[in-house]
Protein backbone atom coordinates (compact mmCIF):
# COMPACT_ATOMS: atom_id res chain seq x y z
CA UNK A 1 0.00 0.00 0.00
CA UNK A 2 1.37 3.50 -0.82
CA UNK A 3 2.53 5.64 2.05
CA UNK A 4 0.28 8.31 3.56
CA UNK A 5 2.51 11.04 2.12
CA UNK A 6 2.27 9.59 -1.40
CA UNK A 7 -1.53 9.37 -1.19
CA UNK A 8 -1.75 12.92 0.18
CA UNK A 9 0.41 14.23 -2.69
CA UNK A 10 -1.72 12.34 -5.18
CA UNK A 11 -4.91 13.92 -3.79
CA UNK A 12 -3.35 17.39 -3.99
CA UNK A 13 -2.29 16.75 -7.60
CA UNK A 14 -5.77 15.62 -8.64
CA UNK A 15 -7.34 18.65 -6.95
CA UNK A 16 -5.02 20.95 -8.92
CA UNK A 17 -5.98 19.17 -12.14
CA UNK A 18 -9.66 19.50 -11.25
CA UNK A 19 -9.29 23.27 -10.88
CA UNK A 20 -7.72 23.46 -14.34
CA UNK A 21 -10.38 21.32 -16.03
CA UNK A 22 -13.17 23.29 -14.34
CA UNK A 23 -11.67 26.58 -15.57
CA UNK A 24 -11.23 25.18 -19.10
CA UNK A 25 -14.85 24.03 -19.09
CA UNK A 26 -16.03 27.54 -18.20
CA UNK A 27 -13.88 29.11 -20.91
CA UNK A 28 -15.13 26.61 -23.52
CA UNK A 29 -18.75 27.22 -22.47
CA UNK A 30 -18.35 30.99 -22.92
CA UNK A 31 -16.73 30.57 -26.33
CA UNK A 32 -19.32 27.99 -27.35
CA UNK A 33 -22.12 30.44 -26.71
CA UNK A 34 -20.56 33.02 -29.05
CA UNK A 35 -19.73 30.38 -31.68
CA UNK A 36 -23.27 28.97 -31.54
CA UNK A 37 -24.73 32.44 -32.00
CA UNK A 38 -22.50 32.96 -35.06
CA UNK A 39 -23.63 29.63 -36.59
CA UNK A 40 -27.31 30.39 -36.03
CA UNK A 41 -26.92 33.92 -37.43
CA UNK A 42 -25.12 32.72 -40.58
CA UNK A 43 -27.49 29.89 -41.50
CA UNK A 44 -30.36 32.07 -42.90
CA UNK A 45 -27.95 34.00 -45.13
CA UNK A 46 -26.38 30.79 -46.45
CA UNK A 47 -29.82 29.28 -47.06
CA UNK A 48 -31.10 32.28 -49.01
CA UNK A 49 -27.85 32.55 -50.98
CA UNK A 50 -28.29 28.91 -52.04
CA UNK A 51 -31.88 29.69 -53.05
CA UNK A 52 -30.87 32.67 -55.18
CA UNK A 53 -28.12 30.75 -56.98
CA UNK A 54 -30.39 27.76 -57.53
CA UNK A 55 -33.16 29.93 -58.96
CA UNK A 56 -30.76 31.79 -61.24
CA UNK A 57 -29.12 28.63 -62.59
CA UNK A 58 -32.49 26.99 -63.27
CA UNK A 59 -33.78 30.04 -65.14
CA UNK A 60 -30.63 30.27 -67.28
CA UNK A 61 -30.81 26.57 -68.08
CA UNK A 62 -34.46 26.80 -69.12
CA UNK A 63 -33.99 29.97 -71.15
CA UNK A 64 -32.02 29.02 -74.26
CA UNK A 65 -31.83 32.67 -75.33
CA UNK A 66 -29.72 33.55 -72.32
CA UNK A 67 -26.67 31.89 -73.83
CA UNK A 68 -24.38 29.28 -72.29
CA UNK A 69 -25.58 28.60 -68.73
CA UNK A 70 -22.56 26.49 -67.82
CA UNK A 71 -20.26 28.51 -65.60
CA UNK A 72 -16.86 26.80 -65.05
CA UNK A 73 -17.62 26.33 -61.36
CA UNK A 74 -20.80 24.42 -62.29
CA UNK A 75 -19.34 22.16 -64.99
CA UNK A 76 -19.24 18.50 -63.83
CA UNK A 77 -15.77 16.98 -64.03
CA UNK A 78 -14.24 13.66 -63.12
CA UNK A 79 -16.09 10.40 -63.40
CA UNK A 80 -15.76 6.84 -62.26
CA UNK A 81 -12.05 5.91 -62.05
CA UNK A 82 -11.12 9.32 -63.36
CA UNK A 83 -10.34 12.79 -62.13
CA UNK A 84 -8.48 14.26 -59.20
CA UNK A 85 -10.20 14.54 -55.84
CA UNK A 86 -9.08 17.02 -53.20
CA UNK A 87 -10.32 16.65 -49.63
CA UNK A 88 -10.42 19.74 -47.43
CA UNK A 89 -10.21 18.51 -43.83
CA UNK A 90 -11.02 20.99 -41.05
CA UNK A 91 -9.57 20.05 -37.65
CA UNK A 92 -8.16 22.07 -34.73
CA UNK A 93 -4.68 23.03 -33.57
CA UNK A 94 -5.21 21.89 -29.98
CA UNK A 95 -6.43 18.75 -28.30
CA UNK A 96 -8.34 18.23 -25.03
CA UNK A 97 -11.54 18.07 -27.09
CA UNK A 98 -12.59 14.47 -26.63
CA UNK A 99 -13.15 12.68 -29.92
CA UNK A 100 -13.53 15.86 -31.98
CA UNK A 101 -10.35 15.43 -34.04
CA UNK A 102 -9.93 11.64 -33.89
CA UNK A 103 -13.50 10.87 -35.00
CA UNK A 104 -13.24 13.27 -37.94
CA UNK A 105 -9.79 11.98 -38.97
CA UNK A 106 -11.01 8.37 -38.93
CA UNK A 107 -14.06 9.45 -40.94
CA UNK A 108 -11.73 11.02 -43.52
CA UNK A 109 -9.54 7.92 -43.57
CA UNK A 110 -12.53 5.67 -44.28
CA UNK A 111 -13.70 8.03 -47.03
CA UNK A 112 -10.28 7.92 -48.71
CA UNK A 113 -10.32 4.11 -48.73
CA UNK A 114 -13.86 4.03 -50.12
CA UNK A 115 -13.26 6.62 -52.86
CA UNK A 116 -9.85 5.47 -54.09
CA UNK A 117 -11.34 3.18 -56.77
CA UNK A 118 -13.46 6.09 -58.09
CA UNK A 119 -10.67 8.62 -58.70
CA UNK A 120 -7.31 8.65 -60.40
CA UNK A 121 -5.75 10.40 -57.41
CA UNK A 122 -6.74 11.79 -54.01
CA UNK A 123 -4.91 14.55 -52.16
CA UNK A 124 -5.62 16.52 -49.01
CA UNK A 125 -5.69 20.11 -47.84
CA UNK A 126 -5.68 20.14 -44.05
CA UNK A 127 -6.75 22.93 -41.71
CA UNK A 128 -5.44 22.42 -38.17
CA UNK A 129 -2.38 20.77 -36.65
CA UNK A 130 -4.21 17.69 -35.35
CA UNK A 131 -5.34 16.56 -38.79
CA UNK A 132 -1.86 17.12 -40.19
CA UNK A 133 -0.27 15.00 -37.44
CA UNK A 134 -2.79 12.19 -37.98
CA UNK A 135 -2.30 11.85 -41.74
CA UNK A 136 1.43 12.59 -41.70
CA UNK A 137 1.89 9.37 -39.73
CA UNK A 138 -0.51 7.22 -41.75
CA UNK A 139 0.21 8.52 -45.27
CA UNK A 140 -3.23 7.59 -46.62
CA UNK A 141 -3.09 10.45 -49.15
CA UNK A 142 -0.52 13.13 -50.01
CA UNK A 143 -0.99 16.46 -48.22
CA UNK A 144 -1.16 19.22 -50.83
CA UNK A 145 -1.25 22.15 -48.40
CA UNK A 146 -1.65 22.92 -44.69
CA UNK A 147 -3.31 25.80 -42.87
CA UNK A 148 -3.38 26.76 -39.19
CA UNK A 149 -6.55 26.00 -37.26
CA UNK A 150 -9.43 28.41 -37.70
CA UNK A 151 -11.13 30.52 -35.02
CA UNK A 152 -14.40 32.44 -35.07
CA UNK A 153 -12.79 35.82 -35.81
CA UNK A 154 -10.60 34.42 -38.61
CA UNK A 155 -13.19 32.14 -40.24
CA UNK A 156 -14.31 34.59 -42.94
CA UNK A 157 -10.80 35.58 -44.01
CA UNK A 158 -9.69 31.94 -44.07
CA UNK A 159 -12.80 30.94 -46.07
CA UNK A 160 -12.03 33.59 -48.70
CA UNK A 161 -8.36 32.58 -48.87
CA UNK A 162 -9.06 28.88 -49.27
CA UNK A 163 -11.99 29.52 -51.63
CA UNK A 164 -9.82 31.62 -53.96
CA UNK A 165 -7.05 28.99 -54.03
CA UNK A 166 -9.47 26.11 -54.65
CA UNK A 167 -11.20 28.02 -57.46
CA UNK A 168 -7.87 28.84 -59.10
CA UNK A 169 -6.76 25.20 -59.02
CA UNK A 170 -10.18 24.11 -60.33
CA UNK A 171 -10.01 26.56 -63.24
CA UNK A 172 -6.43 25.46 -64.04
CA UNK A 173 -7.46 21.80 -64.16
CA UNK A 174 -5.28 20.80 -61.21
CA UNK A 175 -8.29 19.31 -59.45
CA UNK A 176 -11.63 17.97 -60.68
CA UNK A 177 -13.62 17.71 -57.46
CA UNK A 178 -13.28 19.24 -54.01
CA UNK A 179 -15.01 17.88 -50.90
CA UNK A 180 -14.87 19.42 -47.45
CA UNK A 181 -14.86 17.21 -44.33
CA UNK A 182 -15.89 18.80 -41.03
CA UNK A 183 -17.81 18.27 -37.80
CA UNK A 184 -21.40 19.47 -38.16
CA UNK A 185 -22.62 21.17 -34.99
CA UNK A 186 -25.82 19.74 -33.54
CA UNK A 187 -25.47 20.55 -29.84
CA UNK A 188 -22.83 20.87 -27.15
CA UNK A 189 -22.73 17.08 -26.81
CA UNK A 190 -23.32 16.11 -30.45
CA UNK A 191 -20.94 16.81 -33.35
CA UNK A 192 -21.35 14.70 -36.49
CA UNK A 193 -18.48 14.12 -38.97
CA UNK A 194 -19.88 15.21 -42.34
CA UNK A 195 -18.82 15.73 -45.95
CA UNK A 196 -19.94 18.37 -48.43
CA UNK A 197 -19.11 18.57 -52.13
CA UNK A 198 -17.73 22.05 -52.80
CA UNK A 199 -16.57 21.91 -56.43
CA UNK A 200 -18.01 21.73 -58.94
CA UNK A 201 -20.80 23.73 -57.34
CA UNK A 202 -24.17 22.01 -57.39
CA UNK A 203 -26.81 24.70 -56.98
CA UNK A 204 -29.72 22.35 -56.37
CA UNK A 205 -32.29 21.95 -53.64
CA UNK A 206 -30.50 18.80 -52.50
CA UNK A 207 -27.49 20.80 -51.31
CA UNK A 208 -26.25 20.42 -47.76
CA UNK A 209 -27.35 24.01 -47.23
CA UNK A 210 -31.01 23.75 -48.12
CA UNK A 211 -32.13 26.04 -50.91
CA UNK A 212 -35.38 27.92 -50.68
CA UNK A 213 -38.33 27.48 -53.06
CA UNK A 214 -38.02 28.91 -56.53
CA UNK A 215 -39.51 32.36 -56.88
CA UNK A 216 -42.48 32.71 -59.24
CA UNK A 217 -41.51 36.30 -60.08
CA UNK A 218 -39.56 36.78 -63.30
CA UNK A 219 -36.77 39.24 -62.48
CA UNK A 220 -34.99 41.57 -64.88
CA UNK A 221 -31.23 41.12 -64.49
CA UNK A 222 -28.84 43.99 -65.13
CA UNK A 223 -26.43 43.76 -66.88
CA UNK A 224 -27.27 40.06 -67.56
CA UNK A 225 -27.95 36.77 -65.83
CA UNK A 226 -24.52 35.47 -66.81
CA UNK A 227 -22.79 38.49 -65.26
CA UNK A 228 -24.81 38.14 -62.07
CA UNK A 229 -23.93 34.47 -61.90
CA UNK A 230 -20.26 35.33 -62.48
CA UNK A 231 -20.34 37.43 -59.31
CA UNK A 232 -22.58 35.21 -57.21
CA UNK A 233 -20.87 31.83 -57.65
CA UNK A 234 -17.50 32.74 -56.05
CA UNK A 235 -19.44 34.43 -53.25
CA UNK A 236 -21.60 31.31 -52.88
CA UNK A 237 -18.44 29.19 -52.54
CA UNK A 238 -17.08 31.54 -49.85
CA UNK A 239 -20.39 31.41 -47.98
CA UNK A 240 -20.38 27.61 -48.00
CA UNK A 241 -16.82 27.53 -46.66
CA UNK A 242 -17.60 30.16 -44.05
CA UNK A 243 -20.65 28.26 -42.83
CA UNK A 244 -18.65 25.02 -42.63
CA UNK A 245 -15.89 26.71 -40.61
CA UNK A 246 -18.39 28.22 -38.18
CA UNK A 247 -19.88 24.75 -37.72
CA UNK A 248 -16.39 23.37 -37.06
CA UNK A 249 -15.53 26.08 -34.51
CA UNK A 250 -18.79 25.58 -32.60
CA UNK A 251 -18.28 21.80 -32.67
CA UNK A 252 -14.76 22.16 -31.28
CA UNK A 253 -15.88 24.25 -28.31
CA UNK A 254 -18.83 21.96 -27.67
CA UNK A 255 -16.49 18.94 -27.64
CA UNK A 256 -14.05 20.75 -25.35
CA UNK A 257 -16.77 21.71 -22.91
CA UNK A 258 -18.06 18.13 -22.76
CA UNK A 259 -14.56 16.70 -22.38
CA UNK A 260 -13.61 19.09 -19.58
CA UNK A 261 -16.92 18.45 -17.82
CA UNK A 262 -16.23 14.71 -17.89
CA UNK A 263 -12.66 15.27 -16.70
CA UNK A 264 -13.88 17.40 -13.78
CA UNK A 265 -16.38 14.72 -12.74
CA UNK A 266 -13.73 12.00 -13.02
CA UNK A 267 -11.36 14.06 -10.88
CA UNK A 268 -14.04 14.41 -8.22
CA UNK A 269 -14.61 10.65 -8.17
CA UNK A 270 -10.85 10.01 -8.01
CA UNK A 271 -10.49 12.40 -5.08
CA UNK A 272 -13.25 10.58 -3.21
CA UNK A 273 -11.62 7.22 -3.90
CA UNK A 274 -8.16 8.41 -2.86
CA UNK A 275 -9.56 10.01 0.29
CA UNK A 276 -11.11 6.69 1.25
CA UNK A 277 -7.79 4.91 0.65
CA UNK A 278 -5.99 7.60 2.69
CA UNK A 279 -8.40 7.22 5.63
CA UNK A 280 -8.06 3.43 5.59
CA UNK A 281 -4.27 3.65 5.48
CA UNK A 282 -4.21 6.17 8.32
CA UNK A 283 -6.55 4.02 10.41
CA UNK A 284 -4.34 0.99 9.75
CA UNK A 285 -1.27 2.95 10.81
CA UNK A 286 -2.98 4.11 14.00
CA UNK A 287 -4.13 0.58 14.78
CA UNK A 288 -0.61 -0.76 14.22
CA UNK A 289 0.87 1.84 16.57
CA UNK A 290 -1.70 1.01 19.27
CA UNK A 291 -0.95 -2.69 18.96
CA UNK A 292 2.76 -1.99 19.28
CA UNK A 293 2.15 0.09 22.42
CA UNK A 294 -0.08 -2.59 23.96
CA UNK A 295 2.42 -5.26 23.04
CA UNK A 296 5.26 -3.28 24.64
CA UNK A 297 3.25 -2.74 27.82
CA UNK A 298 2.47 -6.46 28.06
CA UNK A 299 6.14 -7.28 27.63
CA UNK A 300 7.10 -4.92 30.46
CA UNK A 301 4.55 -6.54 32.77
CA UNK A 302 5.93 -9.95 31.99
SS elements, strand count: 5
Quaternary status = single chain
The CATH topology of the largest domain, please? Pyruvate Kinase, Chain: A, domain 1
Biggest β-sheet description: 5 strands, mixed
Strand line-up of the largest beta sheet: 3-2-1-4-5
Distance between the termini: 34 Å
Strand percentage lies at 5-15%
Number of helices: 5
Q: How much helical structure, as a percent, in the residues?
A: 55-70%
Overall form: elongated
CATH homologous superfamily caption of the largest domain: ATP synthase, F1 complex, gamma subunit
* Topology order in helix (H) and strand (E) letters: HEHEHEHEEH
Just give the CATH class of the largest domain. Alpha Beta
User: Which structural category fits the helices and strands?
Assistant: alpha/beta
The CATH architecture of the largest domain can be named as 3-Layer(aba) Sandwich
Give me the Rg, rounded.
29 Å
Question: What does this protein structure show overall?
Answer:
This protein has 302 residues and is α/β, with parallel strands linked by helices. It has two domains: 62 residues, Helix Hairpins (Orthogonal Bundle), CATH 1.10.287.80; 230 residues, Pyruvate Kinase, Chain: A, domain 1, CATH 3.40.1380.10. 60% of the residues lie in helices and 13% in strands. The chain has five helices and five strands. Strands 3-2-1-4-5 form a five-stranded mixed beta sheet. Helix 2 links the parallel strand 1 and strand 2. It is elongated, with a radius of gyration of 29 Å. About 5% of the residues have low confidence.
Amino acid sequence: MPSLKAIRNRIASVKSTQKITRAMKMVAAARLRRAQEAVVAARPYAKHMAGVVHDLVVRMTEDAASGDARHPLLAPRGGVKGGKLRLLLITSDRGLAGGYNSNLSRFAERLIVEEKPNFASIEMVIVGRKGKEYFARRKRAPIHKEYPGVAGDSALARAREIGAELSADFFAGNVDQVWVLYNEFKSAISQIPSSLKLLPLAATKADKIEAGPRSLVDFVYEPSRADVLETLLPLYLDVQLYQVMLEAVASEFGAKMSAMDSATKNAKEMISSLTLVFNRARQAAITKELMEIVGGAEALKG
